[in-house]
Amino acid sequence: MKLRNVLALGLGGAALALLLVEPSLAQTPTPEAAAAPAAAAAAAPVPNKGDTTWMLISSVLVLLMTVPGLALFYGGLVRTKNMLSVLTQVFAIACIVCLMWVCYGYSLAFTNGAGLNDFVGGFSKAFLKGVDPNSVAATFSNGVVIPEYVYIAFQMTFAMITPGLIVGAFAERMKFSALIVFIVLWTTFIYFPMAHMVWYWGGPDVVAAAAKALAAATDEASKKAAQDALDAVNADAGFLFKKGALDFAGGTVVHINAGIAGFVGCLILGKRIGYGRDLLAPHSLTMTTIGASLLWVGWFGFNAGSNLESNGTTALVMINTFVATAAAAVSWLFVEWAMKGKPSLLGMLSGAVAGLVAITPASGFAGPMGSIVLGLVAGAACFIMCSSVKNALGYDDSLDVFGVHCIGGIIGAFATGILVNPALGGVGIPDYTTKPGELVVGSYDLVTQLTAQGWAVGLTILWSGIGSAILYKLVDFTIGLRVTQEEEREGLDIADHGERAYNY
Question: N or C: which end of the chain has fewer CB within 10 A?
């Protein structure tokens, strides 16, 4: 079938789906029925302008991380002949996933999926059905909401950057057409379900209402009915959320998820021509420095924005994102200095990113001093992974996506289970049921929490690792993954896009 016919068929199907997404027929209500919604609306929480403003800013900051931040960071690390290809890949992924998100991604991630609800949502909000400027989304505080459009936009920026991270693992050797097909499949079958499993739940007010009804029940029958209702509310959540896994801003959903997918990809595609023999040095550490700096700035929206409101916890996340990043950059710098004899700019930048990755899941749970320790550990561990271990195993992870994002994410995920302990300066495990209507600190058990974190890490590695391998092979069998040797030697700028990043 010719490409134009495929496109016509796809656009026709999309148009038909849009026609099916229609509002319910209006009915003339009785005076009593009209009064009930008015009373409910009067009691319902409304968005605070300060929270809304902060979340709008955070959404733009996360976009800044992707374009131009990630694009420049990766672009500077490849050779001149592949600079434009990396910029194109990251920008194209951001645009495509943006459209996927509003068509069906948000619905798959953040709605009830009926029989598959543990693992993925449904299509009840496909094409943003039922969402309007008056719709609200829950935060983590009772009685606090934000406009749902803002929440959709914020989570959309996470979906846009995550698959973009993957391209660094096999940079300079994958066909652009194969990349686009793979990313569409990966985002649909790997990212959206992972976001659902980790972050989907009913929200604090839904839990509080069910818990209050149970507390108010007076006889056995009403208590049983109220308990069943509370159990149903708690059951309406993603698999890993119900396991008690803590991931404040995406250690599993974003970093381990993308890191292991990139690792599988670099193994399947094989090494670049000349790897281990020729000099494959970054062509512009200036560009990489600009990109890394933009990543750090944008990461405040990524982490602090994940609190979904502007309060003391947001401030805690911000200070943690400062100090963990600085600690990891310093750690990588001095460990590399001690082992290789010279401190490098690239090492310090890589350490900063490793610190940002590691603090991501812990940013809203750890204290500042615990965050510094986490940064120091992550910087040193990721350096060893990206140098000694990588060289020993001989895999060609072009831009160290696995060594920084996957390993840093794993360190951060397990550290979250430790540093959340109030005895170590953490904020404690959130508990919305002991005192219905307010957030209190629940009981903490190290083994229980580390087990929950292990579930999150293990399932993410298996889900993304196995799923990505299947998708890579599917694309390879159909259109092929890798460019030809001649195209790789010429560079993907010309081979794939017919233009150059630089014309001197």
Answer: C
Cα 76 to Cα 69, 80, 259, 273, 287, distances in angstroms = 11, 8, 20, 19, 5
List 430's β-bridge partners, or say none. 441
**Rounded distance between C-alpha atoms, residue 449 and residue 429, angstroms:** 9
Q: Are 359 and 321 in contact, with CB atoms under 8 Å apart?
A: yes
**Under a CB-based contact definition with an 8 Å cutoff, are residues 302 and 61 in contact?**
yes
Cβ atoms of 421 and 446 closer than 8 Å:
yes
**Six token digits for residue 172:** 């300079």
- For residues 300 and 295, what is the distance between their CA atoms, to the nearest angstrom? 9
Burial 463-477 (b: 16+ CB within 10 A, else e): bbbebbbebbeebee
Q: Which residues pair with 440 in a beta bridge?
A: 431
Amino acid at 228: D
Distance from C-alpha of 195 to C-alpha of 315, rounded to nearest angstrom: 25
What pLDDT band is residue 31 in, cutting at 50, 70 and 90? Answer: very low
Q: Give the number of other CB atoms < 10 A from CB of residue 386.
A: 23
The secondary structure of 412-438 as a DSSP string is HHHHHHHHT-GGGT----EESTTTTTS
Q: Residue type at 176?
A: F
Q: Residue 117: what pLDDT? A: 97
> How many CA within 13 A on the CB side of residue 347?
22
Does 129 have pLDDT greater than 50?
A: yes
How far is Cα 39 from Cα 20, in angstroms, rounded to an integer? 32
The per-residue pLDDT of the chain, averaged, comes to 92
Residues in the chain: 504
Residue 28: what pLDDT?
42
Q: Which whole-number Å values give the CA distances from 51 to 57, 248, 444, 495, in the listed order?
A: 10, 18, 30, 47
For residue 245, the surrounding DSSP H or E stretch is: none
How would DSSP label each residue in 430-466?
EESTTTTTS-EE----HHHHHHHHHHHHHHHHHHHHH
Cα separation values, 311 from 56, 105, 141, 418, 479, Å? 15, 29, 10, 24, 50
